Amino acid sequence: MNFKSIAIALFTLLVSANIFAADKKTEPEGWWGQPYPSQFDTSQLTKQLDFISVQGNQLVDGSGQQVIFKGMNIADPDKLLREGQWSEKLFKEVKAWGANIVRLPIHPISWQGHGKEAYFKLIDQAIIWANAQEMYIIIDWHSIGYLPSELFQHPMYDTTMKETRTFWKDIAFRYSGVSTVAVYELFNEPTDQGGRAGKANWLEWKAFNEELIDIIYAHDKKVVPLVAGFNWAYDLRPIQQNPVDRKGIAYAAHPYPQKAKPTVKSKENFFKLWEEVWGFAAKDYPVIATELGWVKADGKGAHIPVINDGSYGPQIIEFMQQRGISWVAWVFDPDWSPTMISDWNFTPTQQGAFFKKEMLKHE
Q1: Where would I find the Glycoside hydrolase family domain in this sequence (predicted)?
Q2: What CATH number did the domain enclosing 61 receive?
Q3: Cα-flanking dihedrals φ and ψ of residue 350, to 5°?
Q4: Which structural domain, as residue segments, surrounds residue 140?
Q5: Which of 5, 193, 217, 312 has an alpha carbon 20 to 30 Å from 23's alpha carbon atom?
Q6: Inside any domain, residue 21
Q7: In what order do the strands lie in the sheet with 151-152?
């Protein structure tokens, strides 16, 4: 046998071996062998938390007593995992600051990149760790843009209406009956960016949120869907004429300090503008300010609309207390602004120290 014949024979043998190996590898992963989705195993939880529901304009526990959430956002679990900061220690620290709820901002890019099943493991861990500390969880589909036009502020937020429907279908099925998961924030910050992301239409947005709520309720009615208004989850005025036509829901607000622009920056003027644009909703519905916070003009990551000298903190807390509004400060991470900690030793920033003091008041 000459060299050419030997080479051809070896090549044929190698190709055959690779095909056989590939067949062996893919055979158990064939589509017909894939298991059906599974639900979260509640036997992993050590504490029995009440289910949270809506009664009038209040969130209430199992005995009908009003619940006011005061907590913090953490960074996307995928980010924390990549940085080596995803651990029970983080949740214990959040609890030590006085929080009774944790918001998980799940970015489409991290959901897509990590993969659904692997990401479920992160959410499962968050539920177990939060439950052990007797804290509730908000699962937040963390996109920014106008979903019906599928135009977004940054590639990290890119998603589709189909993916969003599927996300909530899968989440609602997996965590049905898990009381620690109290709130589903359907879409983080809807905005058409002044027309750069299409043209926002409230009736269109309302109808899509109602569709998502129907999907969620088909799996689980013991959870509170949270609906955001336009202008990056700041403007709820459309609900005065056309509220979301579903029971048991709450509304989200992200009232960062530079969203309201009074001519004279007095507490009374800020209160007036906040009341007109989003605070009024608390008269009829539960409202959760799922993002709020500030940083000084020369602080880390200072950008519109979060810049403030610190006067915002006491004012926004007083405003929300008067109306029974729950809140979740942004963000318990040293990278994303406005930060609540300056390092992974959990050293508080200016706003971190303020919100920590406020949360501990109510422990």
Answers
A1: 60-333
A2: 3.20.20.80
A3: -55, -50
A4: 49-361
A5: 5
A6: no
A7: 151-152, 144-146, 189-190
Residue 37 lies in a domain: no
How many structural domains comprise the chain? 1
Q: Retrieve residue 202's tokens.
A: 């409230």
> Residue 24 domain-assigned?
no
- Is residue 26 assigned to a domain? no
How far are the Cα atoms of 83, 98, 100, 124, 286 from residue 69, in angstroms, in the given order? Answer: 28, 11, 6, 21, 11
